[in-house]
């Protein structure tokens, strides 16, 4: 069975500081993809970053980077230089290549403090 | 602009009524999905479809039905059998050639009175 775990229901970070949002996953499939999404209060889901299980390097997209530790089955999101607009819910998700379903964690609520 | 549209954004219905949520995409994506999100929780898969005229149940399909008569459309019907239908519903799609991103619509917030 596939599972995504986000253990931080809520996080606070000072503006301009970096923050790490935790995500662990469980799958027996050797080929999979890991995703992070941002959901502001408006409800839309915004894709942030993707990491493939065979990617050698950690993914980066602007201020977002994914700290991928395959042996530990973790895929933490690092947001550098936090901005007030980063305040939102953040979801980690996984897709295994043997199926077409995406599995989502329960999310982490991030609040950026001025 | 390519994307996914869901209508309406807010929907109110009386208990016992069926209601259909619209989802249309012009991305030429093969796979489409419906998720339900309850306050403070993650996304749970209701149904998904990989090709026209085919769909599979997700984790919480009871009380819901879907159709996929056209590639660009994947409507969701919330039936009176759904015990607690008040929730936020998100539609998404992906390309068969690249599952590296799942695109989402803006969502429909359904309230059953």
Which key phrases capture this entry?
heterodimer; A: 114 residues; mainly beta; four-stranded antiparallel β-sheet; B: 113 residues; seven-stranded mixed β-sheet; 50% strand
Question: How would you explain this protein's 3D organization?
Answer:
The complex is a heterodimer of chains A (about 110) and B (about 110). With about 110 residues, chain A is mainly beta. Chain A contains no helices and twelve strands. Chain A has strands at about 5, 10-15, 20, 25, 30-40, 45-50, 60, 65-70, 75-80, 90-95, 100-105, 110-114. In chain A, strands 2, 5, 6, 10, 11 and 12 form a six-stranded mixed β-sheet that branches. In chain A, strands 3-9-8-7 form a four-stranded antiparallel β-sheet, with no helix packed on it. In chain A, a hairpin with a 6-residue loop joins β5 and β6 (about 45-50). Chain A is globular, with a radius of gyration of 14 Å. Chain A starts with a strand and ends with a strand. The mean pLDDT of chain A is about 95. With about 110 residues, chain B is mostly beta strands. Chain B contains no helices and eleven strands. Chain B has strands at about 5, 10-15, 20-25, 30-35, 45-50, 55, 65, 75-80, 85-95, 105, 110. In chain B, β5 (about 45-50) and β6 form a beta hairpin.
């Amino acid at each position: 069975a596939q599972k995504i775990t986000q253990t931080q229901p809520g996080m606070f970070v000072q503006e301009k500081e970096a923050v790490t949002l935790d995500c662990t996953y469980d799958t027996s499939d050797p080929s999979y993809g890991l995703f992070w999404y941002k959901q502001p209060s408006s409800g839309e889901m915004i894709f942030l970053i993707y990491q493939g299980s065979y990617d050698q390097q950690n993914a980066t997209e602007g201020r977002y980077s994914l700290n991928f530790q395959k042996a530990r089955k973790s895929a933490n999101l690092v947001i550098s230089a936090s901005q007030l607009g980063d305040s939102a819910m953040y979801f980690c998700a996984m897709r295994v290549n043997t199926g077409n379903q995406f599995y989502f964690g329960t999310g982490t609520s991030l609040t950026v403090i001025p | 602009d390519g994307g996914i549209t869901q209508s309406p954004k807010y929907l109110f219905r009386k208990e016992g009524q069926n209601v259909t949520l619209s989802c249309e995409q012009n991305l030429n994506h093969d796979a489409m999905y419906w998720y339900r999100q309850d306050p403070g929780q993650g996304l749970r898969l209701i149904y998904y479809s990989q090709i026209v005229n085919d769909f599979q149940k997700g984790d919480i399909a009871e009380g819901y039905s879907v159709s996929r008569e056209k590639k660009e459309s994947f409507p969701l019907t919330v039936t009176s059998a759904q015990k607690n239908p008040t929730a936020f519903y998100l539609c998404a799609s992906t390309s068969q050639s690249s599952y590296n991103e799942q695109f989402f619509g803006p969502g429909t917030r359904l309230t059953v009175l």
